[in-house]
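User: Could you check the structure of this?
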Amino acid sequence: MPDEAVPNYVRVAGYAAIGLLFALVCAVGRLTTYFVLLAALLALLTPSIRQAQRLASRSPVDTIFLGSVITLAVALLASSDEWRDPLYILNFAPFLIAIPFRWQLERTARPDGALIVARLSLTGVIIAGLVAVVQVILLGYTRVGQPLMGAHDYAHTSMILGFLALVGCFAPGAHRRWPFLLGPILAIGAVLLSGTRGALLGAPALALVAFGFALATARRKGQILLAGAVAVAVVALLAAAAYFFGFERAISAFDSAGRVLAGQQIDESTRQRLLMLSGGLGAFLESPLFGHGWGDMVKAVYPHVPPDEVEMMTGFRQLHNGPMSFAVGAGVFGIAAFVALTIAPILAVLATPRDSQFVSRLYFAAVLVVGFAVFQLASIMLGFEFHTVQYAMMTMVFVAFVRDPAPPYSPGSAGPAPSTR
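Assistant: Sure, the predicted structure tokens are below.
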């Protein structure tokens, strides 16, 4: 459908959501969640939504998001003890709102969509770095984020944005590519300043994703290998500088992981997480089908940990592990929904046309999937509003906005109508 047929307020709402998700998130903080939802609702609650649905392409992501929410709703209803328990399904409402948002966003697709998102992501990680410098170095904060957002939310977001920016190195179009190499470097620097250990564990996995895509798409493989060696050296210098200036907490994540694998003595934070994992397994086996309910996942672990550890766990709302939180909160139904949501971006991109931005879309989806998968080993991401909105809406931006627009359809043309519904 021609872009001119899209109402101006719908177009503006879509662009505003994209700008908030990728460029302004670390400046706006938690409020990003509600501004993005407001923009998505503005694109939904309009007469043009019916035309958008009719013209939108088919995508498995709609079915996956809808099916996952229904699956979780069944589990929460089955495990509910009081009237408020099923209301936790509202935590996953952004996945439903994202579906019609995709329909509208697809009508504003641009041939330079990948480059736009890359530039916005680079802007976002630059802002994240500035926030870290101001809060930690100038104001003396021990952790970055507050009062804008939690330190873990800040660190996870910075790391994702930094590696998303790299798509500018191989996105189609004539543009300077080297500035996008700063994305991961700035992201790692911001996470080091934040002192958040779990986010830094995602860096090696995301680096492998980026290196694999760069090597597969490059004409001159030698330059990519050289760039990879330089990147490793720069990161090593950043880590050494962080240790020298007293920001070694984030680096200790790799030491903690090694100690866990070797069975050696570990720090208190890691010990607590392992305790919640072992207790969570006991709670899951106690009610494997529907789980114990989203609001009772922590309480369900109490009988499966030493009595003197219960008081320590009363301050938690989740089990600091995504898969285990879904397993205890919603049983095998929760596990099925978690797996489906985790792979949804990849499946959605694979179902899109092989146009000039397909590789860029696939890279975006891979960074989102791998990043969230690694981060959720130490912290829940989906099911709490900030990262749920981020994951759902970013997925739709990659699938619907980062694509070559379909040619306008006219009744006298030989080609098929754009709608596949």
